[in-house]
Design a protein that fits this description.
- By secondary structure, the protein is mostly helical.
- A two-stranded antiparallel sheet has the order 1-2.
- The radius of gyration is 15 Å and the shape is globular.
- The structure holds zinc ion.
């Protein structure tokens, strides 16, 4: 089935986000400290990506986890939230203020996010050299 322009840009943004989070978090699970690759390397949202589209591609709302820490994250929401608050206090305060906000996105919003993410990726790649 043909994808709409909106579905295509959502996919591109998800791909960019995954690449950036892996670089930023140094291929390391932020919970257990294990080095992670491939399908064991999972970008995990603090506020679920379906809840708030603006936060779906906000790097402060995403951390890299291994498969088993990601499962733990979803099965233990209360412990998970307090772990995150403890580990990343300023990010916790930041995402918390968006928890009940809904966002409507226009195509121009998606495009703006895409250029921000591309710039961020370039930065991270530049640092690695
Ligand atoms: Zn882990």
């Amino acid at each position: 089935m043909a994808k709409t322009p909106r579905q295509r840009i959502v996919k591109r943004l998800d791909d960019l986000l995954r690449e950036i989070v892996r670089l930023r978090d140094n291929d390391t699970c932020q919970k257990c400290g294990k080095t992670v690759y491939g399908s064991n390397s999972q970008p995990s949202h603090v506020i679920a990506k379906g809840r708030c589209l603006l936060l779906r591609w906000d790097l402060l709302n995403v951390k890299l986890l291994c498969n088993s820490c990601h499962r733990w994250w979803h099965l233990n929401p209360i412990n998970a939230a307090s772990w995150f608050a403890d580990r990343f206090p300023s990010r916790y305060d930041y995402v918390k203020q968006y928890e009940y906000k809904l966002s409507r996105m226009r195509m121009s919003d998606f495009q703006q996010i895409e250029s921000l993410l591309k710039a961020k990726l370039q930065d991270l790649k530049g640092d690695a050299k």
